């Protein structure tokens, strides 16, 4: 049932405020994060996170959170590479697998590889009755509800939600965060569904940019810090459903090659909230504009003002705590892909050549 929406993907994008609020309440009790007994990070020296596709970009985002907030080193890899590399798993390691379906063949094989090597196996899944959930020591449901669109949307934000809660838990277990700081972080997270609504209200400006972009053959996505994994997620979403070739780069890598691609025909999506890395990203953006590149800047009001007039188009999101920007900025990335696909007339829910669950390697 599409609940009146034209596509499941649209429904799944637009229900994110409600879904996130419900998903969050399943893990919170006042100022406490409710997690299964024994899920403690004080004896952990390293986390290995493995997944495919969008779930992998959720892991990459979590790496920034775990390392910055909890001081806990994280290795991330795509499951198809991890499983055949025979990666050594150091002592006091936790292995963590993220999968919407819980049935992805490569992710399951990577999990089986870690059995007996890692101290414990965690998974973050949407389908609680899945193989990956069953074979984990602890499976954490993301509570996104059934996701039908092949392009993952609400599962991504709900994966981020659980991973962020785990990073906060790790930070408090490891004495990196006081209970007051934790309470503040949780209050910000509780306010996020409301902020999601405000972000979805910017739909018209995203749709307009998407229509203007739909004729492009190639699109670049740039981001720094927490926006770097999200740039990948935005590019993946656009490729999957609009068939426009899209690539993501860390903003700082621009000069090391991809800037050679820039001309008037290549739109560049820059995701840059006004955080401690903003000025650096703006200077990369100016390098793009100086070469005729058309920049779509996704930022907040302070960022939009600081970026100046020469930007091709700007989408202005509400300001949130810098740590929460991956969840919030996921929404315009999803909407951009959705509207580009609509403009191109592609099959949004069932893009060519793709399956919702990839059970063969
Ligand atoms: O079910 P999983 O989360 O394990 O699936 C992983 C990928 O196949 C999946 O995220 C894929 O990349 C999506 N189509 C992305 O929109």
From TrEMBL:
Record key words, sorted: Aminotransferase, Cytoplasm, Glutamine amidotransferase, Repeat, Transferase
Active site: 356 (for fru-6p isomerization activity)
Enzyme class: transferase
EC number(s) recorded for this UniProt protein: 2.6.1.16
Locations listed in the record: Cytoplasm
One GO term describing the cellular component: cytosol
Keyword Cytoplasm among UniProt keywords: yes
One GO molecular-function entry: glutamine-fructose-6-phosphate transaminase (isomerizing) activity
Catalysed conversion reaction: D-fructose 6-phosphate + L-glutamine = D-glucosamine 6-phosphate + L-glutamate
GO biological-process terms attached to the record: amino sugar biosynthetic process; carbohydrate metabolic process; fructose 6-phosphate metabolic process; protein N-linked glycosylation; UDP-N-acetylglucosamine metabolic process
Subunit structure and binding partners: Homodimer.
Purpose of the protein: Catalyzes the first step in hexosamine metabolism, converting fructose-6P into glucosamine-6P using glutamine as a nitrogen source.
Protein name: Glutamine--fructose-6-phosphate aminotransferase [isomerizing]
Species of provenance: Roseivivax halodurans JCM 10272
Encoding gene (name): glmS
Portion of the parent chain present: 244 to 604 of 604
